[in-house]
Specification:
heterodimer, A: mainly alpha, about 0% strand, globular, B: alpha+beta, four-stranded antiparallel β-sheet, two-stranded antiparallel ribbon, 12 helices
Chain lengths: ~425, ~400
């Protein structure tokens, strides 16, 4: 038995408390048999409830009508159509876009293989619907937005790669999970090489949603080891080390990220050796990493606190060196329990990459979307320009949070 | 037989020695890195032709700030920074209040017995918290507030409250002479009302008759304050805003930037607060609700008297974090030009070039604000926790 890990409460989306299970198993209430019965129970259980249902449905119906009319009738999506490439890749040179496509194919193939290898879906009607509806909507939107035959071809190849990946993944089977993990870890440096190496594109020209993703992934990868060290340092029995780590973590978390990004632009160049001139975007990545590390440290600390004292004692009784005790006994348990909080944190970090827009220096998705409606021919189309950006952020963050729920259930936090 | 001296490990394996040595090495490393960094900083700053002193804060600022407390461009940089601090507090305090109210409503709606209400609240939470708050703030500003009709044709609520692309204006109280005396009267009224409240609670305990604490307390309060209001010469009046050609006159006016920032922060933070409220309500043991039911309380009373007081106690620490997040997120105003701390500091950095000092000042201010909010919430926590010890 172990205590559930304590997790810093300002990590967004942390599950605060699990609903309590009934102590005595209660006889189950019979499931509503008919539609009428269900409606009566859930919508019209009392007079006031019925009234509430009717009023809300009316308001909802009106809202849905206005929304649908906006999307299909009154909105002018030409601003999105003209700027789709800018949304996705910003100032990335057109003749080098094949690099982006290559990176997309690499990630798609890996995603397909992982899915085929790890996920066995039992296809229920609800699940079929939850896949087909977004796909149909996406294809519909693309039919309107994409006119170039080349892009259609490239998208077609991408879906073919995905399907092929799933098939290959099935063949390989779950046993090959370790090489897959290695492939994922190597995928990121590979993407950077594809974009940058052999006469590629300088980081200053990376832009759009591509930039958001790259900054988020860099910060996630780099902040993890740093945060781990900070967490161990904070729990160190050497007062000098732990005091330093506590001060570092608390100062970083107490000041807003925008201030740190300003710090990265104005002060960091002064602190670094004079000969070392880093591009703006690299300095922003450094600040994202440091900021994220403070949060990772707090999450890991929560996980470490959740490991029962007996585990330490047992490891010491076996005569393990403190380093090996940490690496072999404590950390594997501590880290496993932090997976959901960690994913939550990485989702917020991904959302926070939009803060690059606040500095006005980087051509990331939000800034490009805001700029799109500044062009003379698109004036007055602010909502049409911003909503797609919001939708893109939402789709990624929402699917990640869904995935995290699944992982949470599988990992079984709190029960070992 | 080995003596104690012989079993002692050599010094390079002695934990006590290692501990001191390890810290010494660590401190040395930090000092070396810090010194190197500081030398770099000095060199870089000198190359830019500026210094590291804070004297520049006394210089003339020379730039306009659109809103906030009394300030003119002829005043110092420090005064300008102060305007930013007050503006941050202005948006954070109102934001915290409104986000709590909205979050509470949605959190309770998340657990409604009505399927439709439950679903709406869930959709709200899932949509709002997965879109970056900066996207939302910019959306409210660019696509909603600035896209409102111009001031003459703006929205008007019964001719007393207005909304247009110049922001919002609502009626507000205006203080006249004698407001100080009236303040004392209100204080006296509050003390008397508290006394009445206690007295009714005791009567209820002794005799079992319904307490009606609120009715009695409100009655006592009004009985003191209403005559007091007249006696001090009616020092407060309602100031209804009017529409002028280029803006509003009178009342409480919110600029478009303030309105958009507040909307964005409140709507975003409310989604997280709703989840905290829901979690806390679910964390109250089921037996509490069943006991309340067994006592014959109505569902509303169960929530108000039994479940929520306990849930709020659980909710206070995570709520504190959300309040801190809201305060920190108010810095995103820099993207829409509301002059809060970061925005004003950015302008000062552009004008005076002392980025290092300014950012130190910004960090100190935010740390202070965080400490302040945490202190208030800790006080609240103690207050709530001391009443009735259930957990």
């Amino acid at each position: 038995m172990s205590r559930p890990p304590t997790v810093p409460t300002d990590i967004e989306r942390t599950v605060l408390a699990e609903a309590e299970e009934p102590v005595v198993a209660v006889a189950p209430v019979a499931a509503p048999v008919t539609v009428g019965e269900w409606v009566r129970r859930n919508l019209f259980s009392s007079w006031s409830n019925g009234l509430l249902t009717i009023v809300t449905s009316a308001a909802l119906g009106y809202l849905a009508f206005r929304l649908l009319r906006f999307v299909f009738v009154s909105a002018d999506w030409s601003v999105l159509k003209a700027n789709l490439r800018v949304y996705m890749t910003g100032r990335f040179p057109v003749e080098e876009l094949w690099r982006v496509w290559a990176a997309v194919y690499l990630v798609t193939a890996l995603a397909g293989i992982s899915r085929g290898m790890l996920v066995r879906t039992r296809w229920t009607w609800a699940r079929v619907l939850s896949v087909t509806v977004p796909v149909v909507l996406l294809i519909g939107a693309l039919l309107y937005l994409v006119e170039s035959a080349l892009v259609w071809l490239l998208l077609g190849v991408a879906s073919a790669v995905l399907v092929a990946g799933v098939v290959i993944g099935r063949r390989l089977g779950r046993a090959r999970r370790a090489p897959l993990l290695v492939a994922w870890v190597l995928a990121f440096p590979a993407v950077i090489v594809i974009l940058r190496a052999f006469g590629g594109v300088k980081p200053e020209l990376w832009g759009g949603f591509l930039l958001n993703i790259i900054v988020a992934v860099v910060a996630i990868f780099a902040s993890f080891p740093l945060g781990l060290l900070l967490a161990l340092g904070r729990r160190s029995r050497l007062p000098a080390v732990s005091a330093f780590c506590v001060a570092f973590i608390e100062v970083i978390r107490g000041v807003p990220l925008v201030a740190w990004l300003f710090f990265g632009q104005f002060v960091l160049p002064l602190l670094l050796p004079p000969g070392l001139a880093l591009p703006n975007i690299v300095r922003a990545m450094i600040m994202f990493t440091v900021f994220s590390a403070a949060y990772v440290a707090e999450i890991v600390r929560g996980g470490l606190q959740g490991v029962p004292e007996g585990q330490y004692e047992a490891a010491r009784a076996l005569g393990l060196h403190p380093t090996r005790m940490m690496a072999l006994v404590i950390l594997p348990q501590a880290l496993r329990s932090t997976i959901p909080a960690m994913i939550s944190h990485f989702i917020s970090l991904f959302k926070d990459t939009s803060l690059l827009a606040a500095l006005g220096l980087f051509s990331e998705l939000l800034r490009n979307a805001r700029r799109a409606s500044a062009a003379i021919e698109f004036i007055g189309l602010q909502a049409e320009a911003l909503l797609p950006a919001a939708l893109i952020f939402w789709v990624v963050a929402f699917s990640m949070s869904r995935w995290s729920h699944r992982v949470e259930r599988r990992v079984g936090v709190g029960e070992r | 037989v080995a003596t104690a001296a012989h079993t002692r490990p050599p010094f390079w394996r002695d934990v006590r020695v290692l501990r001191v040595a390890g810290q010494a090495v660590f401190v040395l490393l930090i000092v070396v890195v810090a010194r190197e960094t500081f030398l770099n900083l000095q060199f870089g700053v000198r190359r830019q032709g500026i210094d590291l002193s804070f004297d520049f804060l006394q210089q003339r600022a020379g730039f306009e700030i659109k809103e906030g407390i009394d300030y003119s461009p002829s005043q110092s940089f420090f005064k300008a920074f102060r305007v930013g601090v007050v503006n941050t507090i202005a948006v954070a305090s109102v934001g915290i209040l409104l986000a709590t109210v909205l979050g509470l409503l949605i959190g309770v709606a998340r657990l409604s017995t009505n399927w439709l209400i439950r679903r709406i609240a869930q959709t709200y939470v899932e949509v709002i918290r997965n879109v970056p708050v900066l996207v939302q703030i910019i959306f409210w500003y660019v696509a909603v507030v600035l896209a409102l009709p111009v001031i003459g044709g703006g929205l008007s609520v019964w001719g007393v409250a207005f909304l247009s692309n110049r922001g919002a204006a609502i009626p507000w109280v205006r203080a006249g002479p004698g407001v100080g005396a009236f303040g004392l009267v209100v204080l006296a009224g509050l003390v008397a009302a508290a006394g009445a409240w206690r007295w009714r609670a005791r009567v209820n305990e002794r005799t079992g008759e319904p307490p009606r604490r609120f009715v009695y307390a409100a009655g006592v309060f009004l009985a003191i304050v209403v005559p007091g209001f007249v006696a001090t010469g009616s020092p407060l009046s309602i100031d209804v805003p009017r529409v002028e050609r280029f803006g509003y006159e009178g009342g409480f006016q919110a600029s478009p930037e303030y309105t958009a920032l507040l909307l964005g922060l409140v709507i975003y933070t409310a989604a997280f607060i709703a989840e905290i409220i829901r979690g806390s309500i679910q964390a109250v043991t089921k037996g509490q609700k069943e006991a309340a039911e067994a006592l014959g309380l109505t569902p509303g009373q169960q929530l108000r008297l039994v479940v929520l007081p306990q849930a709020l106690r659980i909710a206070i620490p995570p709520l504190n974090s959300q309040y801190l997040n809201l305060t920190k997120n108010s810095s995103l105003a820099v993207a829409i030009g509301y002059p809060e701390i970061i925005s004003v500091s950015g302008t000062i950095i552009n004008q005076a070039g002392r980025a290092t000092q300014m950012l130190l000042l910004v960090m100190a201010t935010y740390l202070l604000l965080s400490l302040l909010i945490s202190a208030v919430m800790n006080g609240l926590n103690r207050l709530v926790a001391s009443r009735g010890a259930l957990r």
